């Protein structure tokens, strides 16, 4: 191996879109630095167009959008919320904060999404909502889940942190849930460092969502001239981001097609060029079912076992390629045990794939040379 001090290829690198620096300067120059300024309006409109959602409210994070969903659904202590164990802790934390109980369901071994066939067995008379996470932006199998929500009168929430730009049978992700949460964290497809959005597909929720987001006040109505002063109306918090962040996000959303083109090129290159190596070594590549258009959010490989996964990360690191594992099961995490419960049958698939999964660098500006280096580093690993 030649170790000629190659720069490490990072797991992620943020992309600067065409108007980004200009919009940031404009927001600062115009003094529109607090929330709900002109860039917030622009970014919100773009989001409704991209997701086909009725209404979008920018938030300080996806975590906060999920917290807002828990308040909006009036969850009470002891209410149950069904969700996958294989997800980011914010999915569960947002509901546990309201005293609700996350009920963790296992994932499918092919898409790593919540196993729709296991959801019904997790429903009790305390169940109030089902939260789906479209892992890697590949849609969950929505028909049976939507059908269960209708039959048991449960709210459907999409944690769509990975799914912006993805669709299921032609319909954009983020438009299926009564509520959906987006993330614009630095690692997501469109980013402003720390940010998110609450998408509402039920007009009845809009008025109260605005109040919850503005410290429990009707400040939004006041600024629209609908009330002559604003007052404390409901519980809430300060969930609106600075217009400076909205300026950065606006530029990113305007460049979304370009970002997506670049991300898909990397994803596709990995998928084709690693296929033989994967087959020879018993490694699984991502599976995208018919009807799912995914947004190339991440590229993962499933090594045969934990030992190989760890050795593989070490092998890549020695060749200057930063790779990362992903979610650790929530049902067996300390807070998952304390605040949640596991659905009947446990989560054996989640436990297994969490140990085997590794993500390799995928970002818009990953150039040909670095992509070739990643592919070469992967292909020189032999599963033992
Ligand atoms: C990134 C992520 C979040 C949290 O997003 P923030 O904007 O950082 O709060 C929540 N859920 C999933 C599935 C995520 O990937």
Structural features, described:
By secondary structure, the chain is an alpha/beta fold. The chain has a domain at 256-379: Aspartate Aminotransferase, domain 1, CATH 3.90.1150.10. 38% of the residues lie in helices and 14% in strands. The strands form three sheets. It has an eight-stranded mixed sheet, sandwiched between helices. A three-stranded antiparallel sheet has the order 7-6-10, with no helix packed on it. A two-stranded antiparallel ribbon has the order 11-13. Helix 4 (89-96) links the parallel strand 2 (80-84) and strand 3 (101-105). Helix 1 (20-29) packs antiparallel against helix 8 (243-254) and helix 3 (62-72) runs parallel beside helix 4. It is globular and about 70 Å long. The relative contact order is 0.18. The chain binds pyridoxal-5'-phosphate. Pyridoxal-5'-phosphate (PLP) binds next to helix 3 and helix 4.
């Amino acid at each position: 191996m030649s170790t000629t001090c190659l720069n490490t290829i990072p797991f992620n690198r943020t992309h600067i879109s065409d108007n980004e620096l200009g919009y940031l300067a404009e927001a600062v120059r115009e003094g529109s630095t607090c929330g709900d300024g002109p860039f917030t309006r622009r970014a919100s409109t773009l989001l409704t167009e991209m997701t086909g959602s009725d209404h979008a409210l920018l938030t300080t994070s996806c975590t906060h959008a999920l917290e807002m969903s828990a308040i909006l659904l009036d969850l009470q202590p002891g209410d149950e919320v069904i969700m996958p164990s294989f997800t980011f802790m914010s999915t569960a934390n947002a509901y546990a904060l309201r005293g609700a109980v996350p009920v963790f369901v296992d994932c499918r071994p092919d898409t790593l999404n919540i196993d729709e066939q296991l959801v019904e067995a997790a429903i009790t008379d305390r169940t109030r909502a089902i939260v789906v996470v479209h892992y890697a932006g590949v849609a969950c199998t929505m028909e049976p889940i939507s059908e269960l929500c209708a039959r048991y009168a449960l709210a459907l929430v999409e944690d769509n942190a990975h799914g912006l730009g993805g669709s299921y049978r032609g319909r954009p992700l983020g438009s299926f849930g009564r509520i959906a949460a987006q993330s614009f964290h630095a690692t997501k497809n469109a980013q402003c460092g720390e940010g998110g959005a609450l998408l509402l597909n039920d007009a009845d929720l809009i008025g109260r969502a605005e109040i919850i987001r503005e410290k429990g006040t009707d400040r939004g109505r006041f600024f629209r001239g609908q009330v002559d002063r604003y007052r404390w109306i409901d519980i809430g918090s300060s969930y609106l981001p600075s217009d400076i962040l909205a300026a950065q996000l606006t530029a990113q959303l305007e460049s979304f097609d370009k970002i997506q083109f670049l991300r898909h090129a990397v994803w596709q290159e990995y998928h084709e060029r690693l296929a033989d190596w994967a087959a020879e070594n018993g490694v699984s590549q991502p599976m995208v079912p018919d009807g799912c258009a995914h947004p190339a959010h991440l590229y993962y490989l499933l090594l045969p076992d934990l030992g190989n996964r760890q050795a593989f990360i070490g092998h890549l690191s020695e060749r200057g390629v930063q790779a990362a594992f992903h979610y650790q099961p929530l049902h067996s995490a300390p807070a998952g045990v304390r605040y949640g419960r596991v659905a009947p049958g446990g989560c054996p698939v989640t436990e297994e794939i969490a140990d085997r999964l590794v993500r390799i660098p995928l970002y818009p500006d990953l150039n040909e040379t670095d992509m070739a280096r990643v592919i070469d580093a992967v292909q020189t690993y032999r599963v033992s």
